[in-house]
Structures are given as C-alpha cells and as structure tokens.
Amino acid sequence: MDSTPPPSSASPFDMVSSALGQYMPADGAAAAAGSAEPRGDNAALRPAPADPPPARQEQILGAVNLDPELRITRANLDAPVFAGVEAVIGSPFVDLLPPWDVPTVTRRLRQVLETGEPHVARVQRLRRGDGSELVVSMSILAAAAPQEGLTVSLIAMARRLHLYAAETAIGTSLDIGETAQSLAESLLAWGDVTAIDLDFAVWSGEVVTEHPQGRIRLRRAALVPDRAWPDGYVTPGDDLPGDASRLLSQAILRDDAAQAIVIPDRKAIERVLGSSQLVRALVPGDQAASVACIPLVLDGAPPVVLGVAEVWRRADRPFEDSELLDLQELVARTSHHVDLARQHQREHTQVLALQRRLLPRSAGDTIETASIYQPATPDSAGVGGDWVNSFPLPDGRTALVVGDVVGHGLGAAATMGQLSMEARALLSAGLGPDEVLEHLDDTVSLLDDAESGLAAGYSALGSTCCIAVYDPVSHHVELASAGHLPPVLVPPDGPAGPVAIRPHPGLGTEFALREPYDVHAFSAPPGTLLALYTDGLVEDPALSIDEGIDRLTGAVSSVHPWDGLQQAARRVVSALAPARRRDDVTLLLARMIGYRKGDTATWRLPARGDAAARVRTLTAELLRNWGTRDDTRDSVLLVVDELVANAVRFAGGPITVRLIRTGRGLLCEVGDTGNGRPRLGPGGLLDDGGRGLHVVHGLTTRWGVRWTDTGKVVWASVER
Fold it and tell me: Three-class SS of residue 242?
C-alpha cells in the first residue's frame, strides 16, 4: 500500500482517488463487479472485528470528474456500496440523479464552475440501475485548472454518519424556515418525499404551550424535493386544512411517549384522511403508499409538541423498525434546534416590530423624507439600536432624529424605543434640541443605575443622538448632537459637506465630563438636502471615518433635485454600505420644501395698548386676500386678538405675529420676550383672569408654547 501523498499539482480527483487507494481492498473492484445484489447502508451496521484488517474495511468514499459541460470524464466508484450506480464515461452527471433534483444540482454545479467556491456536504440521492436509490453526502470541488471542470466527491451515508451529518447541518442556522428545510432534507434519506409541519405558534415565534384540547394549527414549513407540485397540494408557507391538522393532532398528541406513527398503505391513508381533498392536499403523488409521522417534541413536564415531520414512501419500500428508530432519534436530536429557531424568530419579530414603528411615515407637506434601515446581518442577531424618525411638530415645524443605542437585541431595542418616544414627546412639547438631549442624557444615566433595577445587565452608556428641527417659514434648521457623527448638508447653490457641529460626548457620560449641548443653526432654503445617518454606513476598516463621510458627501451630492428621494436613498446605501457589515446601516434623507412666500406673513410690533387692534386690521386684510371663509376669519381674528392682548399684558419687549396658511387650516403664532407659561385655569363665569386662553382653547384644534432664546412663542391652529 503506497502512502506517498500526491504532488501539490494533482487535481482534486487525483487526491480523492489517492485517498481511495489507501483504503480500498485490492479485490474491491472485482467484488463490486461480481456482486449481483447491491449492498445498502445496513451493511455498515453489522458487527465488525475489534481490529479489522485494512483489506476488510468498509469503503464509503467515491469520486467523479466532470468536464465544463458537466459530462463524466473519470469515475472511481469501485466501493461495493456504490454497486449499481452507473457512472458511464461521456454521459451527463445528472443521469445519476432523480429527475426532480436535476435543476437544483445543475445550478450548484455551474455555480462552483463559475466561482470556484466549493459546495460542501449536500445530502443527495443517486439512482441505481435497478431503480433503487443511494443516499450520499455530495461535495463539489473546482478542478485544479478551470478547463478540467469539476470533481464531485461522494460519501455513502451510513446510519451513524448520516445522523451526525444531519444534526450538524440542522444546527447551522437560527432561521426557522432554514432549520425546517435542513431537517426535511436530512429525513429524505429514509423516504421519497419529506415535509415539516409546525405549530403556527412555532412558525410565528410565539410562546408554545401544551394543547389541552388536542388540536393544533399546523403550517407547512418545509417540503423536499424541490419540484413543481400539483394544484391543491400544501407547499411551504401554506396552512394545512383544518381536518388535516385535526388528524395529525390526534396522531402526535398522545398520552404515552412520543413515537413515530406509521400508516402502512395507500388504502389506509385514504381511509384515515377520509376525503379526496385531503388526499390531494397531503399525499405527494399516486406512488406514495405509506407515511411515517414523527412528532417534534420538547422534553419537559408535560412535553410540548412543536409540530410533526412526515416521511412518505412508495409501495415497494415499507418502513422497518430499525428505520423508525433512526427517524425518531434524528427528530429527537434536532427538535431543540427548531425551538431555538422559534425563540430567535420571536425576538426577531419583536425587535423589528419596534424598529419599524420608529421609522418615519410622514413628515408633513413642507419637507420630503426617505429612510433606509438595514440590520448588520439578515437574521435577528443583527437587529440593534439604530433608529431614525421624522415627524411634524404641532407648531408646523418638522423634527428629524437619528440615534444609535449601544448593543443589539431586546435590551438595545427597548432602550431605543424609550429614547425615541421620549424625544418625540419633548420636541412636541416645545423643547429645543439641546434641552431634549439633556433629558435623554438623564434617562440613559437612570437606565444604567444598577440600584434602580432598570439596567438588567444591559448598559446604554455611550449611545448617541442627533436632533434637527426645521422651520418651514424662516427656512432655518436648529441642530444639536450628543456624540453623533455630523449630518451632511447639500445646499441648492453651494458646496456640500458635513455640518460643523462641536463634538460632544455620548449620552450618559460622567457628570464631570458633561457640557451644555450646543445648538447649531443654519439656513436651509428650498431644495436643500440633509442626510442623517449612523456610523455603520460610513465605517470601513480600509478607510478613516473622515474618508467615509467624504464618500457619503459625494454620494448625497449626486442626488438630482428631481430624483425620487426613496430611490436615491437606496442608491446611496447600495454604493456605500460595506459588503460585510459589522453594524446596522441607517440613513435619513430630508429635502427641504418649506412654505411659499405668499402663504406666510410676519409682523413685528411694539408691546403697546393698540397692538391688538393693529394686528386685527392686518390679519383681516390678509385673510381677505387669501379668500378665507367668514367663519374661519372670525375665529382667527378672535384668537390673534386674545394672544396679542395676553402678550402685551404679561410680557415686555416687542411682539412678533406670524400667520401661516397650511394645507388644513391656519397657524397663528405670537412671540414675546416673557418667560411665563400660559396655563388654562378653571376660569369661572365672573373670573376675568385666563378667559382669553379659554377663548383660544374653544376656537382652535390645538395650541401650545415653545421656548426661544429671547422668550416664548404661543401658537394656535385653526381649521378652515
């Protein structure tokens, strides 16, 4: 026996064949050629001597070489287990496959041929000349030189090897559909068609409980082989008919220990199902004559059934007791993988539901927005704490918020939701961006306080947030940031670049490091584009963060004023997001529109006794020019009169009055230099104090106060 390794230039076929030569008995080929009856997988289960000589070892490895046209050029299938598998030189490799596997395997072969990336350990069935089938583990390798084609290595799946390989394959994914598909593919070694039907609660990630009524709702999660099924047959994603769920429930929800239930022949199947509709929905073809139903059970007190695996066979292959034991062992070994995928799906669903709830829906008529969120990985493990939001404020302005909460999973998602809702509430109450960040800083510190019991092992210290508020009348933006990367500004007639904001530590920093948050104000005329984002979009191991921001600036600058903003956002993310993301990618694009000049009016008046009368005259003339209805005009005149009178009475300094014609009505604003908060008191019939606010409250749909550096603005909205 020659144990010299092959030279490094040898092809994969030569190396596999060399390995075969080390273990193949000298008379293996003759034994294979002279064997009239093919040996099955059960041969590997026969007791063997304690130290079998090399010449008597069971050989389960074979190799086939293919040219670029996928025709067989060489074959080494001399092991007795491959007897009956006729690898004819010059014939297509797909002649060895069942017809329904040809498209999938052909696609895999051509993929390896084109990319050179191997495809390893696919559970596959080969056809023997007598019509029987052999289950193998098939790996596809590119040849040493492209013109040599491919090498396909085949490992005949003995029982123990198959159970090990199946369990390993099933445990590689936390996606519920992929896990069910892997289990179905592994079970195909014992049948012609396999299906996995899961309790709907498992499929949707809900909490699974016992079923005291003996009835579960089943949904098909996987079905192999992959081929065209007749109309009416239940395929993945479909719910099983109610009667089918009832029958399967009776079969798998039993008082005794879970075990495989076998319906042995076609007549018994039709008798149990009871209707042609159920036969058409569940039985895969006329040749299917028997089925084994194996419950997927979680051990416990009491045990919980996750679903059922079904293995269908033809009439000439009845189930043996040893095979049923194998089926039960494999399903029992892998049921916990299904439950892990269910738990993962549950967390994934919860986090995504929260994340989508925070995504912008509509920012109003004065600004156009588009947002993109992509988790770090397609599965739920990548869903983290990145969030964006844009929403109209009650006083007609628009808030744009982006944040990045430390970490991933439910802890980060819960903190993200709390910070996002708190920011929205505070901005709607009239606080400025810097004041909102101060409150968020306190919230993060509170959440990290172990004594409060709110941290629960998760820390959000260092989370970042950036808030921008756009005024569509003055076309100005006020922006404050807590440790977040600077937004990118693209003015309609100037150079693009990041907004020059002073760096500030993230939320929840030590008290000694805290500094007042700066508010950066800048002009944003109609057509201005503002991009807010998280670091996952611009971070690249090969580039500095400044280079990443420069790339983003170039990409956003290329957005044409006529481009649809959502499509533009997708292009920007596609161009910049790294192929292998380590963090979530979030982008919010905002295009400023603002109000037309003819839809707003602003007057600045001294705080004198005749101010209210002057404002009534100016407002009446403006409303006539706007064509406002008489009843709306009367309401607006009363509201403006009361707001100006209050400003003169309780505040000093000049008064600013602003009227805005919106899509749904009129917005009245009165600004003064006072710092007192107007409050709506009980206001009795003879109580003169506070009657003005009662008038405003009765005539408007909403009113409120926002604070400025010089005082406050009281605003009120009147529908027309």
Answer: helix
- The answer to whether 82 and 32 are in contact (CB under 8 A) is yes
Q: How far is it, in rounded angstroms, from Cα 625 to Cα 599? A: 11
Indicate the pTM of the whole model: 0.56
Is the bond preceding residue 503 a cis peptide, omega within 30 degrees? Answer: no
CA torsion, ordered 414, 420, 421, 424, to nearest 10 deg: 180
Paired sense of beta strands 193-199 and 150-156, if any: unpaired
Find which of 282-286, 297-301, 547-551 is predicted with most confidence, using mean pLDDT. 547-551
Local structure of residue 115 (DSSP, 8 states): H
pLDDT more than 70, % of the chain: 74
Per-residue pLDDT, 691: 63
320: Cβ contacts below 8 Å, ≥ 6 apart: none
Q: Which residue has the tokens 């019939």?
A: 685
> If you search the block for the tokens 């990630």, which residue do you land on?
205
Return the SS3 of 36.
Answer: coil
Looking at the DSSP assignment, which residues form a beta bridge with residue 604?
Answer: 656
Specify the length of the chain in residues. Answer: 720
CA distance 438 to 208: 43
Is the predicted pLDDT of residue 35 greater than 50, yes or no? no
The sheet with strand 464-471 has its strands ordered as 384-392, 398-408, 464-471, 476-482, 520-523
Contact 632, 718 (CB under 8 A): yes
Best CA proximity match to 490, nearest among 577, 569, 565, 558 = 558
In tens, the pLDDT along 676-702 reads 777 666 554 334 455 667 778 778 778
Contact 94, 150 (CB under 8 A): no
DSSP 634-652: HHHHHHHHHHHHHHHHH--
Report the alpha-carbon distance of residue 597 to residue 546 in Å, rounded.
38
Q: In angstroms, how far is CA 470 from the centroid of its own chain? A: 31
Give the DSSP H/E element, type plus range, for residue 659: strand 655-661
Half-sphere exposure of 321 (CA within 13 A, CB side): 0
What does each C-alpha distance from 111 to 75, 232, 639, 669 come to in angstroms? 21, 33, 72, 66
681 in helix, strand or coil? coil
DSSP conformation class of 83: T
The answer for residues whose C-beta is within 8 angstroms of residue 373's C-beta and 6 or more apart is 355, 359, 386, 387, 388, 584, 585, 586
Rounded Cα distance, 116 and 408, in Å:
35
Whole-number Å distance between alpha carbons of 69 and 83? 25
C-alpha R_g of the chain: 36
How does pLDDT run across 604-631, given as a tens digit for each residue?
A: 988 888 888 898 899 899 888 888 888 8
* pLDDT tens-place string over residues 458-490: 677 888 999 999 999 889 999 999 989 999 999
What are the C-alpha distances in Å from 700 to residues 431, 667, 689, 693, 717? 22, 10, 19, 10, 6
Give the CA-trace dihedral at 25, 26, 31, 33, to 10 degrees.
120
Helix (H) or strand (E) holding 399: strand 398-408
Strands 288-298 and 119-127: unpaired
402: alpha, beta or left? (left if phi > 0; alpha if psi -120 to 50) = beta
Cβ atoms within 10 Å of 422's Cβ, excluding its own? 14
3-class secondary-structure state, position 640? helix
Cβ contacts of 706 within 8 Å, gap of 6 or more: 395, 430, 431, 712, 713, 715
